[in-house]
């Protein structure tokens, strides 16, 4: 299991959480290790454009694309989820994303930002990621930006994407299961037992 090190923070807490969930973890930017690992975690905190610059600096977008082309699992977390979309708009400035999904990440329309703290989500009944978790389970969010629409009809590997939603002022995409590409806007590594359960669900899908 590799956590991709591309200069974004939060690597160590993600490493500890995945280890607690039962995986052997390496934090690295080495492309060979990232390509060959059973699973790849792409974390991310901070600004969309800065995370994309870091990702491009280690050819992370190519690593993600190659893994997905081979059906190899990738999990994006927080801004590591946001950069999977086509573009992000912050403070009126647009930045290109990795483009795995169509759509734009932009500022939430809410009275209080950032959206910081515990919130429930609305997961599809057949979700693998949230399997075994109650509908009122809460996860930890810290963000002001999100994908507020979902624009992809047919997903990777011919499977219908499973989209989970949350609400803070308005609905936004909280998680996606799209073939080998899964992602969460919230932080599983900061979500206690619920986050650990979710990570074990993901690890259980790895070959």
TrEMBL record:
<dbReference type="GO" id="GO:0000105">
    <property type="term" value="P:L-histidine biosynthetic process"/>
</dbReference>
<comment type="pathway">
    <text>Amino-acid biosynthesis; L-histidine biosynthesis; L-histidine from 5-phospho-alpha-D-ribose 1-diphosphate: step 5/9.</text>
</comment>
<feature type="active site">
    <location>
        <position position="187"/>
    </location>
</feature>
<dbReference type="GO" id="GO:0004359">
    <property type="term" value="F:glutaminase activity"/>
</dbReference>
<keyword id="KW-0963">Cytoplasm</keyword>
<dbReference type="GO" id="GO:0000107">
    <property type="term" value="F:imidazoleglycerol-phosphate synthase activity"/>
</dbReference>
<keyword id="KW-0456">Lyase</keyword>
<feature type="active site" description="Nucleophile">
    <location>
        <position position="78"/>
    </location>
</feature>
<dbReference type="Pfam" id="PF00117">
    <property type="entry name" value="GATase"/>
</dbReference>
<dbReference type="InterPro" id="IPR017926">
    <property type="entry name" value="GATASE"/>
</dbReference>
<feature type="active site">
    <location>
        <position position="189"/>
    </location>
</feature>
<keyword id="KW-0378">Hydrolase</keyword>
<protein>
    <recommendedName>
        <fullName>Imidazole glycerol phosphate synthase subunit HisH</fullName>
        <ecNumber>4.3.2.10</ecNumber>
        <ecNumber>3.5.1.2</ecNumber>
    </recommendedName>
</protein>
<keyword id="KW-0315">Glutamine amidotransferase</keyword>
<comment type="subunit">
    <text>Heterodimer of HisH and HisF.</text>
</comment>
<comment type="function">
    <text>IGPS catalyzes the conversion of PRFAR and glutamine to IGP, AICAR and glutamate. The HisH subunit catalyzes the hydrolysis of glutamine to glutamate and ammonia as part of the synthesis of IGP and AICAR. The resulting ammonia molecule is channeled to the active site of HisF.</text>
</comment>
<dbReference type="GO" id="GO:0016829">
    <property type="term" value="F:lyase activity"/>
</dbReference>
<keyword id="KW-0028">Amino-acid biosynthesis</keyword>
<dbReference type="InterPro" id="IPR029062">
    <property type="entry name" value="Class_I_gatase-like"/>
</dbReference>
<feature type="domain" description="Glutamine amidotransferase">
    <location>
        <begin position="2"/>
        <end position="202"/>
    </location>
</feature>
<dbReference type="InterPro" id="IPR010139">
    <property type="entry name" value="Imidazole-glycPsynth_HisH"/>
</dbReference>
<dbReference type="GO" id="GO:0005737">
    <property type="term" value="C:cytoplasm"/>
</dbReference>
<keyword id="KW-0368">Histidine biosynthesis</keyword>
């Amino acid at each position: 299991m590799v956590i991709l090190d591309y200069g974004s923070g939060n690597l160590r807490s993600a490493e500890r959480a995945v280890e607690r969930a039962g995986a052997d973890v390496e934090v690295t930017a080495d492309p060979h290790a990232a390509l060959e690992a059973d699973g790849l975690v792409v974390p991310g905190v901070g600004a969309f454009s800065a995370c994309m610059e870091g990702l491009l600096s280690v050819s992370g977008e190519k690593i993600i694309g190659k893994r997905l082309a081979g059906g190899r699992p990738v999990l994006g977390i927080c801004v590591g989820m946001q950069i999977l979309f086509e573009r992000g708009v912050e403070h009126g400035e647009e930045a290109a994303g990795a483009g795995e999904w169509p759509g734009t990440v932009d500022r939430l329309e809410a009275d209080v930002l950032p959206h910081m703290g515990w919130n429930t989500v609305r997961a599809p009944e057949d979700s693998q990621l949230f399997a075994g978790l109650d509908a009122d389970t809460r996860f930890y969010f810290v963000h002001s930006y999100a994908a507020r629409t979902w624009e992809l009809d047919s997903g990777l590997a011919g499977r219908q994407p499973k989209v989970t939603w949350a609400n803070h002022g308005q609905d936004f995409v909280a998680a996606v299961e799209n073939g080998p590409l899964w992602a969460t806007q919230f932080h599983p590594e900061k979500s206690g037992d619920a986050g650990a359960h979710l990570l074990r669900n993901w690890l259980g899908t790895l070959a």
